[in-house]
Specification:
Helix content: 40-55%
Distance between the termini: 99 Å
Strand content: 15-25%
Number of helices: 22
Number of strands: 25
Structural class: alpha+beta
Shape: flat
Amino acid sequence: MNEQTLRVLEWPKVRELLACQASWSGGKQLALSLLPSADPRQVERALDETGEALAWLDRGESLPLGGVTDISTLVARARAGGILDPGELLRVADFCQAVRRCRQFLLERAAVLPRLAQWIEELSDMSDLEKEIARCVDEQIGIRDSASPKLAALRRQVRSEQNRAREHLENLVRSAARYLQEPIITLRNGRFVLPVKAECRADVPGIVHDQSGSGATLFIEPLAVIEINNRVRELESRVREEEERILRELTGMVGASAPRLEAALTALAYLDLAEAKARLAAAMHAVRPRLVDGGIVELEAVRHPLLRGEVVPIDLRVGRDFQALVITGPNTGGKTVSIKTGGLAVLMAQSGLFVPARRAEISIFRKVFADIGDEQSIEQNLSTFSGHLRVIRDILEEADDATLVILDELGAGTDPVEGSTLAQAILEQLLARGSRILATTHLSTLKLFAHEHPQVANAAVSFDLDTLRPTYQLVIGIPGRSMALAIARRLGLPAEVVARAEELLGEVGVRLEDVVSGLESERRQAAEERREVERLRAELAALRSRQEEELRRLAALRREVQEKARRRVEEAVHRALLELNQMVGEARQRQRQGTAEEALAAAQRAREQVRQLARRVADTVSGLVPDLAEDDHPAQEAADTVAYLNAGVQRWTPRPGEQVRLRNGGQRGEIRSVDPDGTIEVQVGVFRLRVEAYELEPIPAQEELSAEKAEERAGARTSAAPSSLAGAVRRSISVELDLRGERVEEACAKLDKYLDQAVLAGLPWVRVIHGKGTGMLRQAVQQYLQKDPRVTRFRLGEPGEGGSGVTIAWLS
């Protein structure tokens, strides 16, 4: 990309903006010399680096570049054998410290900085040099006494001798005060002297080093301190020699580290450039361009990077649907700014800069040429038209299918007829070579050419006739109008003059105006249709959103109704069980107190009440939503329960040793004993249960079932047990509740809930495991069971049942 193209596109100004974002001179120099690259891998890498730097800026972070200065001249002098002074050495130490901080910064973020983390290798750890300089050099006093033992000793001797000289002079001041102009001790040429009156010169023997401007005062070094001052001067000379040796040694360390320092200078300059690119992207609200193949430039809402204030963004594209874009329209309408914006966007992308646009797709061009502005030259005897032709000649010599050509006011500066034919020929030649073209013109024939050529598109910058001001909007697809006649009519030029001008415009002009008017009409119609489509799309989206919201509301309502129905069934079941327990209790009481006939009559009444209770439950179920009735079948369960209860009260005399089955659980057991009050002790597995006769049913002796059949029958009986009435809780529930490790309050809450479920499931007894421990939980459980109306009795477990760590409770 030649210098002329970069200059007319104002690339140096973009580089200056970038340099203003850099933190130190190294980054600024790289920014000011930045050039676009035609290497796709290099461009991709540069964009990645800008993106990585922008990511840490978005997190509120930045490179720790404080203390970085350009020490390249110091390093070169150290390498050549020169000596650096203390201030220069401190600059080197500050640089080493900055290198260390930046290295740590990148190391901590290496996982998310795949590109920039590669510079870590160039940032060597030079803490040894940094520490040695800091040990020997101080910003305020220069070389420290601790730089070497010899220097410290020499400086102590200097101070000691100076104190001796001062003591002698103070004695002289006191004894010869009348000869002195002032009773003070001062320095001349690094030696202690006294200010003696000129007329008393003979009274103070010594060496005169200076006199006042008036000659009234002589500065005399008394003979008594000459030897001491000579000693001080000698020691000071030796101090300077030692300081020089230390500086030479430190400078030698800098020279030895020159390769590492120079590599770090390059790395920090490049890192600073990457961060400067990111800062510029953030300031411009720029986006990363997507690199594509095919010579494409597509920019959505792109802004010229050098414009300030309220900038009107434009949409610019070329290369995908058409090969060349010809922009026409009135002067000051933004034609030149539009093509410059496109050219600068390409240069920025190929330099690793983000583009100030909402979206950008850009191909990498090997060559970018631009002919913009006035290229006339008095020295070379070139007119404006000749200057343009010379530039275009150079473009035609090098243009190919990987070239972007930007031409401003093509065909201008000469006879319009000849200029338009020449401009068309130039465009045809560039099109034949496959170049991508952004061009502006006022020539009507080029508008027609663009309209008729399949690889060329027209574009116009719009103009507001009411305000006589451009809108700076670019419309692709229609040619622009110069608006000269319209503006003349609007400004009040005589109507006959405007009419005559229209006549002189001729057939070609009329034909072009017809084309433009037709295209504008089509564009307005397309815009109206597009707005209508957008409106319909918005309405459709709103309808879809409302439909989805209604479906969600209906689903929530269905869940709410089902939950209410479930709760109503549970309440009905719970009430039914309470009434059932009460009826069974009454029947049992009558059985104990009355005759068998009275018990039987009570049982018959209980069966009739159960039938009525089952009908009430079924009526409750029938009033619920169909979904719940279909899913849980509570009516059938109620009927099953009634059938079971009808068969539950019968004449039967239990005997010890008889095989029986628990009605409410289906477990098989053997009767151990029968108490006089009718309570029966049954051995079920390892458990001994005390139950009533109605809770058991005999197993016929001839019924020899296998273990599998017995379990199947038990399961079948269980499915028809009263637990089926509680469809909301499930058909099976564990007969054990483990409360070990629970706090008393939590254990009682869990026990209460578990007893509800056990009663609903129809369990005759439950096993509560509370452990032994301190006995507090056992005591709390038994106190709770003693007060609970659902529990008829309870006892601690026997040795085979868990002992004192378990409580067996019977439910009513």
